[in-house]
Every structure is written in C-alpha cells, then in structure tokens.
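Appendix B. One record, verbatim.
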Amino acid sequence: MKWLNLLIKYRLWLGIVFVALAIFTNMQAGFWPSFILYLVAAILIVGHFLFGPMRLIQSYMEEGDLEGSKKVLDSIWFPGLLIKPVRSVYYTLKGNLDMMNQDFDSAEKHLKKSNDLMNNSTLMQGQLKQAEGANKLQLGMLAIQKGDMRQGESYIRQAIRAGLPDNENNAAAYLQLCSIMMNKREFRAAKEFFRKAKSFKPTTPQIVDQIKQIEKYIARMPG
C-alpha cells in the first residue's frame, strides 16, 4: 500500500494543487467544469486535517525509528482538528515518545489528554476500548515510576477492567500489581497476581526476566 502512504504524506499539497487547478479551470471555463476539482481538493485538505498522517507512523514505530515518528507527529499543525479517536491516538503516541525520552511530565500530560478523549468518546468499543486499557496501563507505570503507588495501582486495575490488547500487556499489568502487593506485604494477593501474570506466557525478554526475578522470592513468601 505504498501508494496510499504517498497519498497520505502529500495529500495536503495535492489538495492545494487541485485548488489552483480548480481556480484556473473556473476562470477559463466556468464553475461546473471545475466542480470536480474543487471537490477533490476539499476531500484531500479536509481529510488531512481531520485524520492526519497517523498511518505513516506505524512503519517508523515498528522499525524503532523515533526521529521518523516524531517528524510525522510534528507535521500535525492543529491536533485539535483531528477527530476524537485519531486525536486520542495522537496524544498516546506523543506520550509514548515522551516516555522513551524520559520526559515523564510531558508524557503524563499527553497520556491524560488521550485518556480523557477516550472516556468522552461515544465509540468506546473494540480496538478503542483496548487502547483505553493500554493507555491506563502506561499511566499506571508512569505513576509508579514517579513514586505514586496508590495512583499507579488504581490506573492498572482500571486498565485490566477496560481490557488490554495482548498477552504481553496483561502480563505486565499483573506483574506490576504483584510488585505493589509485595511492597504492601499482602503476600496472598501478590502470589495470585504473579500466577495470573505467568498464565499469559509472555515472551518479551524484559517481562520474562522480571518473572524470573520475582520467582526467586515468591515461593518463600507466607500466605
């Protein structure tokens, strides 16, 4: 689908070209011969501002190209014009990039904006509902990193209730709850959350390593 990516990348400028052609045709032959050009221009320009170039970010994220992802996000001049689901994804991605750059205050601000948009959306079903869960999980991890264990636990429980998109996210969520319960010395709950985390059989090296580390201590816990 390279042609579609090219269209999305250049659709604003194509829209401007079609506007110029429409005006020229209008001056030379009248309005009706130029109508289709005006229509195509309107679709391209309105589509650019309502939907943005979010599709282009996927390949950059898969390749781990943070600079490429940032350039695409920075090309969105007016995020407030994006439709709500797309705007929510925009702020989630901004938050993710901020977290990778360890700018936690900015990450929290963007993730909360995304979360608010999801909560106010009338389309909270399917993938969008799962996106809400992943967003709350990130907010929970961020709160824990900032030392707010109570808020972190609240967000992670909300994430699990909302639903998470895959086994890796579910395992990460239950491992975080396990760690929180261990710190609170609620060992029975810690063991239960650890069992649930393992049941998802994660394969991400970081999560697998975390499971191995906790497993050294979990058997010795009372309860």
